[in-house]
Amino acid sequence: MTTLYDDLFFRTNMWDVGQLPSPPDAYESPDIIPSGIYPTNNPQAYFSSNYNQDVGQSLVIDGPNYIYLRTKNLASGAQSGKVSLYYTPTSLLLYPNKWQNNALKTSDQQLQVFVQATQPGDIAVTDNPFVWEPSAISGDHYCLISRVSTPKHDNPIPQVGSYTDLTAFILNNPGFGWRNVSLTSANSPTFDTTVDYTQGTEAGSITFQLECTNVPGGASVAFSAGTPGPDPLIVLEKTTVPQNNGSWNTSVTCDVPANYQTNITYSYWANGTTPQPGFKLRLKALSYVDQSSQFFHLLRTPQQLGASPELARRMSAQRGIVLGSHVTIGR
Questions:
Q1: What predicted TM-score, i.e. pTM, was given to this entire model?
Q2: Hey, where are the domains in the chain?
Q3: Which residues lie below 8 Å from residue 53, measured CB to CB, with a gap of 6+?
Q4: Which of 97, 116, 84, 67 is nearest to 169 (CA)?
Q5: CA quadruple 115, 118, 124, 125: dihedral positive or negative?
Q6: Which partner from 8, 56, 186, 239 sits 20 to 30 angstroms from 272, CA to CA?
């Protein structure tokens, strides 16, 4: 008779239904999901709907890769837990001492993410992805290791020193997942820059504006943050810079909740172009207000703030202020 695990678990491969011991091969978990260089809208709905598929992608070298974890609830009732994610260069024998100190973080610098399944059989997905910018390495492979800790099974990382103990650990611990992942240079940015963003105690509509100065037409830019909360997410997907006279910008406007904190990564792809003298990328956070604000007559028009024609039309009756900015200057 097959014995099933009784808690949140990660599959070792597509054929794993939670049986003990876990079926080989162990390094193919479809529940560790590198999803590309942009966060996913409504990850709970998306990654639970394709649970019968492996939708993981290769890791983009030096890009902000967003990685989601999903677990299935094999407990008899509701269950919750905290998940963690680790990495290591691929090795034939992945003893825990090779990866236990290599924990990845989310955009808001969390080492653990809460997940919850309200019913038996539910799929619980991280709403806050881990983010990682892997460097190129010899062999072009890493291994990602996931861990879920619940009230029923804390699943501490064991001290394993022999291959017999390693075998037992892999086969008898469905609270851990393993995935070998390959690297790709396709879509690797020429560079990216990460900057902290803290909303403060007041919720509000914030325009995130990326200004390109002396950036050649044909290059591309993007920015993103994985931390959930803003509506929509703080994401500008890869956008080609048009031919311009030395100044061009693009933006997204988001409703940001109070006390929100994250890291925003903005990226640049040269795409074979040559940066011009005076090259700058500047990420700004702006707030616009209408005439009911006491500050309206003290602030600047969208055009004065360098808004794109579309944003200037949309904000034509409003005035704005730059709350903060971060610049990368070409040398």
A1: 0.93
A2: 3-184, 191-329
A3: 30
A4: 97
A5: negative
A6: 56
